[in-house]
Amino acid sequence: MANNTNLGAAKAAKNDEFYTQYADIQKEVNAYLDYNPDTFRDKTVLLPCDDPEWSNFTRFFAQNFERLGLKRLISTSYAVESKKYKDYEPTLFETESPLFDIDKTRIKGKIFELTRDTNGSGRIDIDDLEWHYLEGDGDFRSPEVCKLRDESDIIVTNPPFSLFREFVKWIFDARKDFLFIGHQGSIGYNEVFPLIQANRMWLGMGFTGGAGHFISPYDDYAVAGDHKKGMIRVSGVTWFTNLEHGRRHQPLILMSMKENLRYGKHIDLRENGYQKYDNYDALEVPYSDAIPSDYDGVMGVPVTFLDKYCPEQFEIVGITKTKFKLASKIYPEQIQVNKNGTRQRVTKLNDGPVIKLPTPPSNQVYYMVGEEIFIQLYTRILIRKKQ
Ligand SMILES: C[S@@+](CC[C@H](N)C(=O)[O-])C[C@H]1O[C@@H](n2cnc3c(N)ncnc32)[C@H](O)[C@@H]1O
After folding, report:
1. Same domain, 239 and 275
2. Model confidence over 256-282: pLDDT tens digits?
3. How many domains are there within the chain?
4. Helices then strands (H, E): number in the chain?
């Protein structure tokens, strides 16, 4: 298996067993505490896909229970027989407990709770977790876990990738605060984009370089070399939240259009200038750091702009994808000219932002409608400067 497998492939393989590193959770949570040290104070936090034997979410929140000022921590785990990955041995923690039940261990979920100092150590930490088997398998959609969701204030986890849409809906059905990991590719989902546009959900601080290393129980993902052993590298991974953090309120420092064209670092932009789409009334801005400060119309920017989005500076008008397509033009059948010169008939231009070129581009797929030449761009977020 390739070590650079992305989340999409993981999803296709229904592979939901990647575990988050403690340091990544700590770094992300610290960003919210920097903004507001009381973000978690007196709150009940639910970790709905988290067995403490595996989950660093449970470890992190249990170890930091007092520092965060939590009222209650609940962590629920999914029964091994319900998982796709069933390689499991009960741990000593479970087998040595008077609650251990050989008939339940593989088919029931578990709940772990932390509210008080149970062992008289003088502090509340992971050793004070109390547990029992759930009635069902711990599916986050089950009535008993839904009840725990309803009792909680903030839901935090890295959910199973294959159930991402359902997980988002599950959280919003209960109108809870949240912080969870997902993939940038899901921003265009019908279930996700309207929430981002309405500022009911935004991106967190994120992973360094836009990629995360997750702990994988699969031997064939355990790779050495420039990647970390026992880890899988997932590119495009990000945090979704509705908790406030500081970066979100820092506007981008921008140059005017003229300054960008004269001093900007992007040679292609300096040479070709800004272009308008052929099928949307918007300006193509291929780089977030090239957004002109003096353009008042709609601009199309890469999805990675959301990492820098400040709602006081811009409004999100739409996305050139899914049912939010803003296409004002329908193209007839086109000829696609591939890099090696081969040609085929297609109808692809209606799927995204399109730019018309005076001459065929070199080393790039392009499309011909009669004598007209077009290229198609990746998904763009459509934004407008706030006055
Ligand atoms: C991507 S892993 C992340 C685990 C852990 N949250 C972490 O970040 O280390 C997702 C976890 O959700 C569990 N899971 C899968 N389907 C589930 C469901 N319907 N309800 C609850 N948990 C589920 C998987 O077994 C897996 O342990």
Report:
1. no
2. 999 999 999 999 999 999 999 998 889
3. 2
4. 10, 20
